[in-house]
Amino acid sequence: MIMWPLAIVAGADMVIQKAIPGHHTNDFKPVYTAVAAFWRNEPVYTANLNSVDPHYLYPPGGTLLLAPIGLLDESTGRLVFLFLNLAAAVLAVYLLLRMFGYSWRSPLAPVGYFALFLSEALVNTLTFGNVNGLFFLAEVVFLTLLLGRRDTAAGIVLGVTIAIKPILAPLLLLPAVRRQWSTVALAVAVPVLATAVAWPLAADPGHYFVHNLPYSLRIRDYYNSSVSGFGVYYDVPAPAILLVRGLLALAVMVSLWLLYRYYREQELFFVTTTAGVLLTAEFALSSLGQQYYSMFLFPFLFTIVVRNSLLRNWPAWLAIFAFYSYETWHLFRWPAFGRNLEYSRTTFGWALLLIVVCCVLVDRYLAARREGRLAHGIDPVHLAPDLPTRDHSHGWAANDPRSGCTTGVDSELEAAHSRSRHVE
């Protein structure tokens, strides 16, 4: 009763006050210009990459897949694109609820939507006219199909996203370590096939590889929250940047090894947590990381309801607030301090999250080794239960050993609790 009105009003405010009016940063315009040129068989990759305006950086296969947008006029196309991304994000959260064993009737549902509508990731995705909402849905669908061992469909979904932009490409590691090789093969084949089909239809497909792709791999000093982008913006010496990236990469490798070694049989926990670590590492350590990429960490954040979650500590949520909050930290009384705080919070948030995950896992490992129980895993002996109460009719059942989730409440206690409610 409390959270649904808050979630609905927050969503309405976000769409009406922020998304529809738009912003001076317009990610949709270069996409529309490119696909319109594609339909006219004109060159697509003609932007001046020395400017700080949004550029069209999608490969020829991505242009082909996005081409239907060009059938509409620009203003109509933007609104359609906006509401498609909004609907995709809303559906993605619903599927996440199902994945973790909850229904829309659970109190987790309005809490999840409230957090989504207040996040910088969704607000700026819709306000700028970006494709991240659709990619968020594709990520959740991919994880769902992967857990369900529907390898062909999972590979096609991931492959389509890679054909447009490879932001979810690190997730290829998940089917690889789970030996779902057909998923890996299809995820690689789909973008290759899309490029092959688009090549004879486009006016300048080769220009992408000599003009746009090298630019995409460069470290730019604006709108870039990666460690490298932060370092370049603040003129940090290159060896210091390399050292920080190396230490974070080491933490990531330790985390991934411990997750694979001790949690791979708990499929839901392993897949969602590993996906979060891989994507956070990509955003922090690659050449480009933008704050609204954090939308793809939502499946990882949902693991807070699982009893062996790595996020049940305050430093993790300090990090999450740093990169998820839409609030700005430009301070009227201390402008220089506020500017530095605003421009660095996403970088430090991603880095802190990677450090927290590594520290929790290493602490669990050392405690288990000290107590002589490594053979039984590294989970602490005493864990809080899953929260809130699960809906056993949806998603991965609470006591399914593949999920890594147990309620700790047997059927007799549940029956007794039900009888007590009836008496009351």
Key features of this structure:
single chain; 424 residues; mainly alpha; 2 domains; 18 helices; globular; membrane; transmembrane
Question: What share of residues is helical?
Answer: 55-70%
Ranges where pLDDT stays below 50 over 5 or more residues in a row are: 392-399, 406-424
Strand/helix succession: HHHHHHHHHHHHHHHHHH
How would a crystallographer describe the biggest sheet? none
Output the radius of gyration.
22 Å
Question: What oligomeric state best describes the polypeptide chains here?
Answer: single chain
List how many beta strands DSSP finds. Answer: 0
Number of helices: 18
Mean pLDDT: 89
The percentage of residues in β strands lies in under 5%
Main structural class: mainly alpha
Distance between the termini: 21 Å
Number of discrete domains: 2
Shape designation: globular
Transmembrane segments: 79-100, 121-147, 153-174, 181-202, 240-260, 267-286, 292-310, 317-336, 348-366
Pfam family, one: GT87
Protein name: Alpha-(1->3)-arabinofuranosyltransferase
Keywords: Cell membrane, Membrane, Transferase, Transmembrane, Transmembrane helix
